[in-house]
Structures are given as structure tokens and as C-alpha cells.
């Protein structure tokens, strides 16, 4: 056995041992409302990593206990991400805490975490189904379901022996079935992993939208809507209500302003940057049109499996992939070796930093493909989602990489 092999084996064993080490986090949750918790209230504590994956959780029945309520959460020592705590009653989160960033220097005792009354924006509940976060809300008697992959579906009530079941008209293979604090979700006949009540991650940051000619922008944050227009005074209004329309649109009402968020892909008229929603803002007799939501939401979550590299296809039976993470990283498989890079998404476009890769020996055809792939990534200046739902990474001369979201939940 060579000295190099011995050193590499020792490094692998040390890394594996470090990954198995655990740490415990403790804290206490409380809220200021003068309201007693019912017997069935549940305390939920979650740790989510930068990719949106659940890395640790504690689900503690309160059984009549009142705040402050202590908790303990065990997780791998090397996990970094965001911790949130909340209290649910039935299938609805009623109190929710602010995100707590977890890093190597985070103390084991988090102290008091103050929860606030949760005011959902359209969707009343969120469920974590494997690595997918599904959100649901009601528009009259219909249930609106955001699938976590850009689709927003309107389902109708359907008889069930227990719980409440909803189906997509004309497609019984697409359904949502609540069972206590959990749910069963089927999309096109494919069952998602068992779903557990979770937190609506989309409510943690400000929502932004805007348009051109005339230029305008709107921000919804902390129950306040702020409208900015060139040459005019800013308009600041308290949000009075939110809800869902019968086609799945999210409605935000503030004074005499109504913001309508449609789940239709929108491209900025000046930069071409795609956004997840088409937005209209009605203020009195004036209606402004534009795009809304974070473009990163179109990228983060799925494993994107590459179908074409610079118009030359890919090697048969090879798997080239990429996955975007919320902390500014992108990584995947180049067909043989793993690759990784930093990614920058601005209002003007998308660029990748210099890619790194592992150094496994590969067949000549795979090695040539990896070189083509990494060279293509270095030329990326933007992205788009085409009419079929495929991700297109483009450069100055056009499409460089075309990829499609994997139907499974395997890592990139």
C-alpha cells in the first residue's frame, strides 16, 4: 500500500468520523399573546440547509403545557443552515419565530426564541414532502396547492373516509389528502414522500415586484406595502388582507391598492431576466404591470439533468447535472467527476465562477464531455426557462446548456 493511498484512506476515515459527530441545541420558545395553548398544540423546530433540505427536526406535543416551553434538538456537528421554531394547532402554524442562522460558532444554548402570530400570505399551511415544500390555502371551497416546483393548482373537495381530500378536476392522480398534522400528496399519479406540517419559507423575506415604462417597484414586508415610482412620492400602505383567487392568484390588499401575483413566468422587458410570477398592481384607477418574485426561486430546489451541451448533445448513458443552492453555490456531476462553483445572480444576469472538480480517471469520451461542459459553464451570462420547463443557460451567442428538472429527488 502506497504512502499516498494510506494518507487518502486516513483522510476519508477522518471525514466520515467528523460527519458522524453530533451536537445538541437547546432553547425556549414563548410568545407575548394572552392566549392559552390548546391540548393539541405542537411545537416544531426545524433546521434547513442552504439547499432547502431538512437536516434536523424536533416535533414536541405540548399536551397542555404553556409557554415558555423548552426544546432540545440533536443534529450533525457539521450542519450549517437556518433554525426556525413554531407552534401549530391542527394543520396550521399559528405562531412562528424568526430564522436563526446556525454556523460553527453558534452557542449550544440559543436562549429565548420569541414567536409571533403568523400572518400567511395567501397560503395557510406548508408541508415538507421529502425535499419538496408544498403550500396550500383556500379560495372559497377550493384548495389551492403550490407544488414547490412552480405549479399552482386549484383542487376541488372529494369524499374521503377520513380527513379532507381534494382532487384536480379531470386528474384524480393529482390530489391532496390531509390526515391530522400530515398529508398525502400525489402529482400526476406519483405519490410524494409522506408530508409533515412545516413552515412557509416564502414568508421569511420581503416580496419584490416591478416593471418598466413607467418604472415602478413594490415591496411587501412586515405587513407593509411600499410603492416607488420615478418622480413621485413613495406610497406606504399597511397590508389589510391577503388571500387566494379562484385561479390560484395571490392577492395582497393594502388601502386602495391591490397586488395580484399570478403563477405565470414573466421576463423583465429590459433585461430579459425571468421571474416566477406575473404581477399587476392596481392603485385607484391606475394599473401597473410587471414581474415579481425572486428569479433564484426558478433555479433552487430541483436537480437539473443536462440534455444538451453547446448543441452537441451528451454521451449516451452519462448523467450530467447541476443543482443550485441558496448560499451562492452550484454543484453537480460532469458525467464522471463531481464539479462545483460559485454562482452570482444579479438583475442583469447569471454568471458562474471558475469551476473546480474531483480528479477521477474517466473514459476518453467522458473526459472530453466534461471539458466541453465546464468550458460552457464559464461562458454563461444568463438563464431562461423555456416553454417546456427546461432550464437554458445561455451566453452571448445563445444556448450553452439545456437541462430538465429530474423527476426523482436524488442529489445532483
UniProtKB/TrEMBL annotation:
| Ranges of residues in domain DUF306 | 299-398
Which residue ranges does the record assign to the C-type lysozyme inhibitor domain? Answer: 127-191
Keywords, A to Z, come to:
Lipoprotein, Membrane, Palmitate, Signal
The residue range of the signal peptide is 1-19
Q: Where are the transmembrane segments?
A: none
SUPFAM superfamilies attached to this UniProt entry:
YdhA-like
Q: Which PANTHER family match?
A: HEAT SHOCK PROTEIN HSLJ
The name of this protein is META domain-containing protein
Organism this protein belongs to: Roseicyclus persicicus
What is this organism's lineage?
Answer: Bacteria, Pseudomonadati, Pseudomonadota, Alphaproteobacteria, Rhodobacterales
Amino acid at each position: 500500500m502506497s504512502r499516498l493511498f494510506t494518507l487518502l484512506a486516513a483522510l476519508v476515515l477522518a471525514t466520515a468520523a467528523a460527519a458522524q459527530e453530533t451536537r445538541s441545541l437547546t432553547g425556549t420558545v414563548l410568545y407575548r399573546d394572552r392566549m392559552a395553548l390548546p391540548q393539541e398544540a405542537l411545537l416544531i423546530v426545524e433546521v434547513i440547509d442552504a439547499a432547502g433540505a431538512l437536516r434536523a427536526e424536533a416535533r414536541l406535543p405540548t399536551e397542555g403545557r404553556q409557554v415558555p416551553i423548552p426544546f432540545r434538538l440533536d443534529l450533525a456537528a457539521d450542519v450549517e443552515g437556518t433554525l426556525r421554531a413554531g407552534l401549530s394547532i391542527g394543520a396550521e402554524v399559528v405562531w412562528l419565530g424568526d430564522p436563526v442562522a446556525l454556523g460553527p460558532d453558534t452557542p449550544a444554548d440559543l436562549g429565548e426564541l420569541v414567536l409571533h402570530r403568523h400572518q400567511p400570505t395567501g397560503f395557510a399551511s406548508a408541508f415538507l414532502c421529502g425535499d419538496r415544500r408544498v403550500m396550500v390555502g383556500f379560495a372559497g371551497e377550493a384548495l389551492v396547492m403550490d407544488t414547490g416546483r412552480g405549479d399552482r393548482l386549484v383542487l376541488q373537495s372529494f369524499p374521503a373516509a377520513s380527513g379532507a381530500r381534494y382532487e384536480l378536476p379531470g386528474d384524480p392522480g393529482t390530489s391532496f389528502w390531509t390526515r391530522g398534522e400530515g398529508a398525502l400528496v400525489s402529482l400526476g399519479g406519483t405519490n410524494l414522500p409522506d408530508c409533515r406540517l412545516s413552515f412557509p419559507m416564502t414568508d421569511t423575506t420581503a416580496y419584490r415586484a416591478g416593471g418598466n415604462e413607467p418604472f415602478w417597484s413594490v415591496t411587501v414586508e412586515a405587513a407593509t406595502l411600499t410603492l416607488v415610482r420615478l418622480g413621485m412620492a413613495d406610497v406606504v400602505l399597511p397590508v389589510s388582507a391577503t388571500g387566494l383567487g379562484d385561479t390560484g392568484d395571490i392577492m395582497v390588499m393594502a388601502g386602495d391598492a391591490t397586488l395580484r401575483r399570478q403563477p405565470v413566468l414573466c421576463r423583465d422587458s429590459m433585461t430579459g431576466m425571468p421571474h416566477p410570477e406575473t404581477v399587476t398592481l392596481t392603485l385607484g384607477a391606475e394599473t401597473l404591470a410587471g414581474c415579481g418574485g425572486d428569479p433564484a426561486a426558478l433555479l433552487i430546489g430541483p436537480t437539473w439533468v443536462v440534455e444538451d451541451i453547446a448543441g452537441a448533445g451528451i454521451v449516451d448513458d452519462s448523467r450530467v447535472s447541476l443543482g443550485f443552492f441558496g448560499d451562492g453555490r452550484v454543484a453537480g456531476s460532469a458525467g464522471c467527476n463531481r464539479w462545483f462553483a460559485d454562482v452570482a445572480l444579479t438583475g442583469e444576469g447569471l454568471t458562474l465562477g471558475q469551476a473546480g472538480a474531483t480528479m477521477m480517471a474517466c473514459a476518453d469520451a467522458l473526459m472530453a464531455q466534461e471539458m466541453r461542459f465546464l468550458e460552457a459553464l464559464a461562458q454563461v451570462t444568463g438563464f431562461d426557462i423555456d416553454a417546456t420547463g427546461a432550464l437554458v443557460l445561455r451566453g452571448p451567442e445563445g444556448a450553452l446548456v439545456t437541462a430538465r428538472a429530474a423527476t426523482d429527488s436524488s442529489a445532483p
